[in-house]
Automatic annotation (TrEMBL):
GO biological processes: 'de novo' pyrimidine nucleobase biosynthetic process; 'de novo' UMP biosynthetic process
Gene: pyrF
Protein name as catalogued: Orotidine 5'-phosphate decarboxylase
Taxon lineage: Bacteria, Bacillati, Bacillota, Bacilli, Bacillales
Active site: 58 (for ompdecase activity), 60 (proton donor), 60 (for ompdecase activity), 63 (for ompdecase activity)
Stated family: Belongs to the OMP decarboxylase family. Type 1 subfamily.
A GO CC annotation given for this chain: cytosol
Entry function: Catalyzes the decarboxylation of orotidine 5'-monophosphate (OMP) to uridine 5'-monophosphate (UMP).
Reaction it catalyzes: orotidine 5'-phosphate + H(+) = UMP + CO2
Domain of life (superkingdom): Bacteria
Binding, substrate: 10, 31, 58-67, 121, 183, 192, 212-213
Naturally occurring in which organism (per UniProt): Lysinibacillus composti
């Protein structure tokens, strides 16, 4: 897996995706999320792969262990590089996800890396305590989920940049810290609450950054991508 900024392809369909991708003349690392996958299905994965791009399939599975295991077995055959679940689904669910992924990875192919979402980057500490009734600091909750994820045998977590260094200290350098909520300095936060810049992410312990609207919504997406990459150090 490369270290390039992961571009979130949050577009309504294939046409918009390729209009965007055709501005670039290099292989990218892209994220396909719920909006695009639910509209286009697995064929969008094949087409984006054929175009030479690495893929993070961000479906954030969260269900009973058996259902997640079976779903992961199917997703493993798509040939993506990175997939995820919600850590709140629990240790048995995460172990099931890993088993399904291992069972479904075709012989001779590398198993996709598997990570778990801790607390969404759109969540504040106050909201988490009030709505999820978690009686911990936000960092405490994220560290708890990171440790649970590590014990389940997964490869890392989705978190914000604000928690990345503490997770690295607790779970080790090789345990991935994939961080959305990335904005260029002065950029609009939109619905994100725990944000950071690409250079802040590098300094504060992210392994990979996920960038959507700061690139896809820019007047010149290629130059926004170059700017993010430069600040990230890629
Ligand atoms: O905690 C999370 C988990 C996933 N995401 C996803 O990342 C991108 C971020 O997009 P921006 O436009 O850069 O805000 C988006 O696809 C989310 O679904 C996240 O933001 N936070």
């Amino acid at each position: 897996m490369s270290n390039k900024p992961i571009i979130a392809l949050d577009f309504p369909g294939e046409k918009e995706v390729f209009t965007f991708l055709n501005h670039f003349d290099e292989p990218l690392f892209v994220k396909i999320g719920m909006e695009l996958y639910y509209q286009e299905g697995p064929t969008i994965i094949e087409k984006v792969k054929e175009a030479g791009h690495e893929i993070f399939l961000d479906l954030k599975l969260h269900d009973i262990p058996n259902t997640v295991k079976s779903a992961m077995k199917r997703l493993a055959g798509l040939g993506v590089d990175l997939v995820n679940v919600h850590a709140a689904g629990g240790r048995a669910m995460m172990e099931g996800a890993l088993e399904g992924l291992e069972a479904g990875t075709p012989a001779g192919k590398t198993r996709p890396s598997l990570i778990a979402v801790t607390q969404l980057t759109s969540t504040t500490e106050e909201q988490m305590q009030l709505e999820q009734k978690i009686n911990l600091s936000l960092l405490g909750s994220v560290l708890h989920y990171a440790e649970l994820t590590k014990h389940a045998g997964l490869d890392g977590v989705v978190c914000s940049v604000h928690e990345a260094a503490a997770i690295r200290d607790l779970c080790g350098e090789s345990f991935l810290r994939v961080t959305p909520g990335i904005r260029l300095a002065g950029g609009e936060a939109h619905d994100q609450k725990r944000i950071a810049t690409p250079d802040g992410a590098k300094k504060d312990g992210s392994s990979l950054i996920v960038v959507g609207r700061a690139i896809t919504g820019a007047q010149d997406p290629v130059s926004a991508y170059r700017n993010v990459s430069k600040l990230w150090g890629e």
